[in-house]
Amino acid sequence: MSGLRLVPRLVITPRRQVLQSIVALGLALLVGAICLLLAGLSPLDVYLHIAEAGLFSIDGLADTAVCATPILLCALGLLLPFRMRLWNIGGEGQLLLGAWAATGVALFLPSWPRSLLLLTMSLAAMAAGGLWGLIPGVLRVRLRTSEVLVSLMLNYVALAWLRFFVFGRWSENGFPLTPQLVKSAWLPRLLDWAERFPILAGLPSHAGFLWALLLAICLGVWLRRSPVAFDLRVIGDSSRAAQTAGIPVGARMILAMTVSGAFCGLAGMIEVAGVVHRLQDRFSPGYGYSAIIVVWLARLSPSGVVLVSILFGALLVGSKDVKPSGVAQLLQGLILLTVMASEIGLRYRLVRTLPKDKI
Amino acid sequence: MAMDTLSQLSHLLAAGVTRAAPLLIAALGAITAERAGVLNLGVEGVMLLGAMTGFATTAATANPWLGLGSALLAGAALGLLYAVVVVSLQADQVVSGLALGFVGTGLSAVLGAPLAAAPQKIVELPQLSIPFLQQIPLLGRALFATSVIVYVAFILLLITKLLDASRWGLHITAVGENPSAADAMGVPVLRYRYACTIWGSGLAGLAGGGLSLAITPMWVDDLTAGQGWIAVGLVVVARWRAIPAAWIALLFGVLRRLPLELQGMSALLGNPKLGYLFEMLPYLGTIVVLVIRTRPGVGKYFAPPSALGIPYVRGMQK
């Protein structure tokens, strides 16, 4: 009898990986189109609008860069633990806590000069986010507690913490937001440089994207050059082999979790200092969660993360004024799900088995 | 004075029980799926889709029972999708579960947009009072004069309890603990995993329906506000057992009501916003149990199903 059989692939080429991501993306867009049709929308119009508003105008591009910044920062951070198959799902909580810390600094030290204030805010945010990543890391290494569940639960602990301050202590006249931060706690904006570069006139977007890009390059170089980065990959492939080779597995895990938390915390600071200029309830549309998808789609590569972050930023910007508000989230979920589902195509190939009598 | 405290307590308990019902239903679904070895981190999103579907159906048909049924079906449909991805295609369950949650949340927002834009009243799930029993002091009101969703939760609790006692329950446990042994015994592993994933996801949808048809009868984006995640944590705290899940759901339900009840007593606490810190407790409780279960003596007591999160391929070790 002839039939089909799954045979494990021995070599997975980068080309196949890219091809598979593109196929998955196409499939996700197709399923998304069906959902949009169900909601009574024209999928083509929606997709074209997202592309146009997010990518093909100078205003749109500037907004896209702003939206992509927190995603990119979180994703760069999450890349490290993900490389060692350590799932930090707590990016959102780490981002929120970073935003909280940065706001605290700005509210209590309003008289500090700008550069010093911004630096202190960044450090505070990174410390707070780092702490929030450290906790699941230490628990995992010391007690073998599931880092997935701990980091996940910490997201909501951070959210409640933030709300406690936004609704209570730091609330402005009982509204769920803090007073606006002093101007010296704002990130420089593109239009501040309009005198030298006239094209930037009228763009209120902040310049944080450039910093994030710089960080991405640094991280990329570090991942290529540093022996520590090499350790991460060995641990991801086999933590037992890493242990045998004398790599301090536990210390590396804690390091990766903490650094990823710090990156996410910094993303929170950038949002506060660059976009909202205050702390408020629901200021993040789930950047920390989107970053997980981005890292997965980018297959753990820093350059891929940059590219996918920009695309996701465009998706968020472009779907902002599409009426049902969930389009961006739906598409993100579908893309990740199809990528996950097609993963099996990377690991196995379908082979037609020969009929018995022909062998 | 004493009478007043009693009635206040009875009120809090009644409110806590209704709040606990959807939480328990979602947790029971997750328990069944996880006992079969399938982790679903998308509960929050599935609940949202269930809540939206239930509300939409009830708004269109004026029949909350149809609404509740459609919520179950919507959840089950997502469960089928999820089962294809993680059982048949063997994808990583942590990441796929998150993706499923995104899909559920996004879909509920997209399809529910017209409902959210034009708020309306719907026919809610009825209250059911049992004569005489409802007059029991303290407990009567909470257990015997309440929304039908509480009775639904109770029936599901009994069904899930059968996991420990029935033939199929033992099969499910075997599939989650040692799938190759179960396979060798002739238990259809993949079929059981499909069934449990779909059932578990269906219950999450049902829980969402209970929320939008009985507890907070309306539809807004993100109606569940983290309750799906609480359900995921609850399963861990309840050690994958039905009865403990009910107690803990009750505790979390009361905790969730407490901030509202405490607003009146704000002077007592000194800070009326302290209630927000109460919201942390279910999540912190989960973390505490996750830590406790690593202690040597109690580890076994709190251990998850051995094959949780691991796809099963016949003839392949782990």
In brief, what are we looking at here?
The complex is a heterodimer of chains A (359) and B (318). By secondary structure, chain A is mainly alpha-helical.
Q: Which helices and strands appear, and what pairs or packs with what?
A:
The complex is a heterodimer of chains A (359) and B (318).
Chain A: E1 3-8, H1 14-38, H2 43-55, H3 58-83, H4 91-108, H5 114-143, H6 147-169, H7 208-225, H8 227-237, H9 239-244, H10 249-276, H11 287-297, H12 302-318, H13 327-347, E2 348-353
Antiparallel strand pairs in A: 1-2
Helix pairs in contact in A: 1-13, 2-3, 2-12, 3-7, 3-8, 3-10, 3-11, 3-12, 4-5, 4-6, 4-10, 4-11, 5-6, 5-10, 7-8, 8-10, 11-12, 11-13
Chain B: H1 2-35, H2 43-61, H3 64-88, H4 93-111, H5 113-117, E1 127-129, H6 139-144, E2 145-147, H7 148-161, H8 167-177, H9 179-184, H10 189-215, H11 227-237, H12 242-262, H13 266-269, H14 275-278, H15 281-292
Antiparallel strand pairs in B: 1-2
Key terms:
heterodimer; A: 359 residues; mainly alpha; two-stranded antiparallel ribbon; 2 strands; 69% helix; B: 318 residues; two-stranded antiparallel sheet; 15 helices; 2% strand; globular
The tally of beta strands of chain B, per DSSP, is: 2
Q: How many β-strands of chain A, per DSSP? A: 2
Largest sheet of chain B: 2 strands, antiparallel
Low-confidence stretches of chain A: none
Put simply, the count of helices of chain B is 15
- Rounded mean pLDDT of chain B is 86
Low-confidence stretches of chain B: none
Quick check: average pLDDT of chain A?
87
**Percent in helix of chain B:** 55-70%
Oligomer: heterodimer
Most extensive interface, residues per chain? A-B, 51 and 49 residues
Q: How far do the termini of chain B sit from each other? A: 62 Å
- The helix-strand sequence of chain A is EHHHHHHHHHHHHHE
Taking the alpha carbons of the first and last residues of chain A, their distance comes to 11 Å
Instruction: Give the percentage of residues in beta strands of chain A.
Output: under 5%
